[in-house]
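Predicting structure from sequence has reshaped protein science. With that in mind, we have picked out one protein's residues alongside their backbone shape tokens:
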Amino acid sequence: MLIKKKLIRLATAGLLIAFCGLWYFSLPQELFNDPYSFIIEDREGSLLGARISSDEQWRFPIIQKVPQRFKECIITYEDKRFDGHIGIDFLAIARAVWQNIRAGEIVSGGSTITTQLIRLSRKGKPRKWSEKIIEASLATRFELSYTKDEILRLYSTHAPFGGNVVGLETAAWRYYGKSPNQLSWAESAALAVLPNAPSLIRPGKNATEFLRKRDFLLHRLYTNNVIDSLTYALAILEPLPGTPRPLPNKAEHLIASETNKDRIRHRIQTTIDADLQEMVEMIAERQHAALSIRGIENMAVLVAENESGKVRAYLANAQGSQEYYNDMILTPRSTGSILKPLLYTMLIDDGLITPRALVPDVPSYFSGFVPENYDRTFRGAVRANRALSYSLNIPAVWMLKSFGINRFHYRLKELGMTLPYSAQHYGLSLILGGAEISLWELVGIYQTLAASVLKYPDSEFAQGISLNNEKPGKGGVKESPTAVMHMLEAMLDVNRPDEERNWERFFSNRKVAWKTGTSQGFRDAWAVGLNYDYTVGVWVGNADGEGKPDLTGLKCAAPVLFEVFNRLPAREWFEFPYDDATYKSICQKSGFAPSEACETIDSVQVSMSTSTVKSCKYCKFVQLDQSKQFRVNSSCYDLASSYTSPWFSLPPLMENYYKNNNPGYKPLPPYLQGCNTTYSDVSFSIIYPNRNSTIFLPVDMNGNLQHIVFRAVHSNPEAIMFWSLDDQFIGRTEGQHEISVQPESGKQVLRVTDMDGNSVSRPIRIEKAER
């Protein structure tokens, strides 16, 4: 008998242990494997947009925190002893049994929020007593592993709220267009009564019963002293929500881009400012309406915060445009002249120019590459800062040639520009649109330079831009704050050339450093601007690459840029980084470091890291006779009786155009008659043709070969010049040195000799067109 009792006890204990083991391990590792919607939030956690889950349900990811108002409402309505029970409410079960017996039918249930959560996870299970026992068992096990807040979060995420709306956060946005944290007591109560019978009542269905249940819950909250009488009185006056609203759809391309990525997370918080994003979208919509009439369909706008590098607005295409779904922020497009400020900064930093240095602006030919200014004129020489303000192409190419294509290519890559080909592939056209850049890279580069000034002398600053809350790369740019400040000041210059004569309409009392760019063939219009707080980039064009005559940076992109800036907060301008700067002397006339022949010395601030500045080569000493009207040398004059005079003199080709734009310029005096000159005294140049150029003789409508015109310039207006091809004399010129010829085909040498025997030659190749 004793042995039998022991066996019974052991069997009972074994069964209890087995039951406890089954109970303990009964909980699945993942309670839900439902697919979630993909949602994007702004910097404050507000919804920017979402994509429906793979099972066609609007089911947002697990809510991060259940708002207190909804928590009070759902517990009051569904499970008033939620905080005290272990997953099963025995008092509620007893009450339900008694009510059901009295009614003779099931009129009440004793479920808790926890058992409801278990039921939601066990989809499609029949409503039997055995299932209820399983749910109760799993509920107690669930309470052992999870806190009450975690249980509420899971329930609020997976509870049905009518139709294909699942979860509190989804319901708040679909029915009220706001975050759950912004719900009023009436709104929270309305949502709290929905999970109990979402197929019977929901917004737009059975409104009378819906209102009765909501008001019943509000009254219970009042009687439980959760809300006061005034709150209750106001709450019952609030209307019920209508049919589901469309979800926000701001930064649509960003949502699409993030959705397509292989991500584990379904909730992405970005750095976007929702209000700024909406404002940019409104501006783009209005501007696009005007542009589309002219056949210009696409637009992109990117706004980044200078100090942090965080992107605050991301508009990848204008709503309603053709090829709308192309993300034009990430699409590489021809740069136009938008890189000119970067080259300017690098040249200053390396001491190759100062802001006031003269750079050539003359007819130029670089191994088949012939740059032209927008106005097709030449200034001879122009200050570097003016060349940037006027966006002159020829000076920019000369500056790139001086800096070196390889160096510029390397430094651009250091700043974050993707250049898939070698420097030699791009050549000198790199500065005029020969390469491609995305708006993302462009804004990132200019933001980095702005941050280097903004954060000086702190060497740790945001390098590049970011859409998430991870820290962007830290500063490592080589460009000094002083050089960047000179760039900003040149971009701030309001003296725009004739092409930009309408710029005044953008005028405001806010300082904005800006630059426009237009690609070859009028396919891409750029504008980038900076103030103290923000860098804004704009691209306008057609995604398919179609060009339009009016598609220029000034006419299409700049209006968008300035409308955005006019809506941004205005603050102070950048402070000059004086601790990084030192004064260096420069020649007032040339803008380079002074030589002994420079008469007037000025100064300019450069970075202390800039060891030297290139010396002036345009000022020199000349010997004049006693009348000071003629130059002399030892071959024709007693130098003891001569005057040594400093003289600012440009090379003949530069001088020819410079003197027309600068009335105060004084050309060198001619030599006194009888003086012998050397090659170093030669003061004339061939304008056309260029060295090693191939010239095709044109053909008229009748098939006859036409003449070509060779041109030269001499510093002496009375000079006589003699022309020859392969030592065969072809003519002489006086005054205006132009000669019309019809040469034979083949390689030849053009030589021009002045009356003093000085000569200049150019190897050329002549090709005759087919008759």
User: Anything to note?
Assistant: Residues 2-24 form the longest helix (23 residues).
